[in-house]
Amino acid sequence: MAAHLLPLLPLLISLSHFALNAAAAGASRCAIPPDGGSTIRILHAFGPCSPLRQAAPFESWEDTVMDLMTRDESRLVYLASLAAAGAGARASVPIAPGRQLLQIPNYVVRAAVGTPAQSMLVALDTSSDAAWIPCAGCAGCPPAAASFDPSHSTTYRSLPCGAPQCAQVPNPTCPPGAGAACAFNLTYGGSSVQAGLAQDALALASEVVPAYTFGCMQKVTGNSVPPQGLLGLGRGPLSFLSQTKSLYASTFSYCLPSFKSLNFSGSLRLGPAGQPQTIKTTPLLSSARRASLYYVNLTGIKVGRRLLDIPASAFAFDPATGAGTVIDSGTMFTRLVAPAYTALRDEFRRRVKAAGPVTSLGGFDTCYSGGAVTPPAITFMFTGMNVTLPPENVLIHSTAGSTTCLAMAAAPDNVNSVLNVFANMQQQNHRVLFDVPNARIGFAREACTI
Ligand SMILES: *[C@@H]1O[C@H](CO)[C@@H](O)[C@H](O)[C@H]1NC(C)=O
Ligand SMILES: *[C@@H]1O[C@H](CO)[C@@H](O)[C@H](O)[C@H]1NC(C)=O
Ligand SMILES: *[C@@H]1O[C@H](CO)[C@@H](O)[C@H](O)[C@H]1NC(C)=O
Ligand SMILES: *[C@@H]1O[C@H](CO)[C@@H](O)[C@H](O)[C@H]1NC(C)=O
Question: In what order do the strands lie in the sheet with 364-369?
């Protein structure tokens, strides 16, 4: 393991102290009040208030540091695979793409599944339509997971092969014979997952969705499957948005808590009611090639007051190829295609020259050890909306080693078309509004604790 990773270790160790102390000290701090109305508490998957904290895959701190970036790498591969998967534009989006899936998502909410309700954690993913839940008796599911027991639900039913939803999942297995249950398998990193397609009542907030379609996980091989379920908030037919259209009108917003927040809790707000009335917005764009994703038109980047010289091709939206810029809840650090990232990084380095020589740390190429770094404001300019990020959205710190890094990176150049990803660290402590009926994405600063 490279020695240059060591400075970030104290940050992770202190995070782990939160986790270890949480069971005792956190009992009161983490006494999470019930979710109210259509507002749902969002937890960081590894934060002190998350029941998953012991399940965090912290084999070693070095591995975890590497994971931060390697997870994002596989996330980018996943996002790119959305375009590669369909030879032509598909009318239906698979419940999960058959190949490389996504890395362990960062934010979870509680869901009530079945009748009577069983409480499950599900990860939020705006770039996927999947919903899957570890089911009782699942062979090889991660042990930390609470599993859903269909036999204790009076409203559970498995979907037959003839159901239209069965045509939307990858590799469906349909044994001959009438009324066979629809099963499918998919791969997730190095793991493979076998699931049955099912329906049951599901509620995030007070409203119950009577027959929500999801994959009931029955068998897992390998160990890269996250210990919780997953809820896709993408735009395809099987996503939460599509399945709850009559309830929530394809509208939601979230406020993602900072990694540094002791409370580690933000909120997911469903439906048009209660959304901010005054919020800056930019048009929401769609690509048939990557139909699940939330595209926006990034038009420029400013560092301080300086507009960077970036070729328009780095930002150009092309619905046919899926090139452009997406807002994603599952990628941790914003990725920009090489010419855009290089321009941003170079100007950033010029501005913080006084902080000393540039070093690298893990996947970050612009880090400083020792001196305090006062970053310039970074403004992402979208059509009709400028988002100026404060330092907390721009820098990632390691505490004891006092190393500070620019928390963004270049997009891997092996993806098959230009894709910029505006990721969750840059969205933290903002309310981000996804308003599909009005085709807009909104941003407003907000302290994300409830
Ligand atoms: C997929 O499912 C089929 C039938 O259930 C099974 O034979 C096959 O081994 C599975 N593949 C994987 C990779 O799990
Ligand atoms: C935690 O949340 C409470 C309100 O719920 C707030 O008063 C407090 O400042 C928060 N603490 C931190 C460290 O964010
Ligand atoms: C994106 O913004 C650029 C620059 O303002 C503009 O030329 C282009 O038409 C916009 N694209 C879309 C899809 O709105
Ligand atoms: C965004 O910033 C640019 C450059 O400062 C400015 O010209 C533009 O009017 C701003 N757009 C909005 C919507 O405020």
Answer: 359-361, 364-369, 403-406, 395-398
